[in-house]
Prior knowledge:
Elements: E1 5-9, H1 16-31, E2 37-41, H2 47-54, E3 60-63, H3 80-84, E4 89-92, H4 95-101, H5 105-118, E5 121-126, H6 130-134, H7 138-150, H8 155-158, E6 162-165, H9 179-198, H10 200-205, E7 207-210, H11 219-223, E8 230-233, H12 240-249
Amino acid sequence: MRIPMVAGNWKMNKTVQEACALVNTLLPGLEAISGVERVLCPPATSLFAVSTMLTGSGIGLGAQNMHWEKSGAYTGELSPEMVRELCEYVIIGHSERRTLFGETDTQVNKKVHAALTAGIIPIVCVGETLEQYEAGKTAGVVVMQVREALQGLTIEQANHIVVAYEPVWAIGTGRASSGADANVVVKDMIRPTISAMYGEQTAQSIRVLYGGSVKADNAAEFFQQSDIDGALVGGASLKVEEFVGIAKSAVK
């Protein structure tokens, strides 16, 4: 049975002081929820402070990005070892990394390998743009992104990843996909691709989240679907009632 997960991607928001204040108000509500894996992904500057606050809470911590090299002349980057000191998770291949910073499928694949080698669980993001969606290219884009991201993994490694389907046209736009449509992508595109690479058992064991304008009032629509196992939440993760409400909706 796949354990639901709700992860909050804070993006480039909150100073260290503000992050600590947010965690302080989030903790009571999140700690009261069982049966759902809860993960916070604050900016890199706040990871240490937040990790201290989450100790013993049962709530996971994730980085928003990392480099694939262990060390070196990569100004501004975080190595897998740096991330592993504080985090259990790392978001890889988010659409904003792809579109704004030119991150390629090859780089995503390198980061996935590096994360798993370091003992970090990658939350691997895939999803089509509005132009691709309207042109009917969703299947081609999503299948290719999944295939390229997971290329070269062992079956054991593949079983440790989390996939997040985030249609780019729904991120931060207020225009969420319908639960049924998102489920079609996960059930008929993402899982079959993983099955072809690593077998049906692996395809059915991997958790696939939905992301894109998820809020407390529409989360249940996604979580009721057969193949959606939670959410990667953006803006709503910065609002206590919204994020706690989303996490509650994920309880089976």
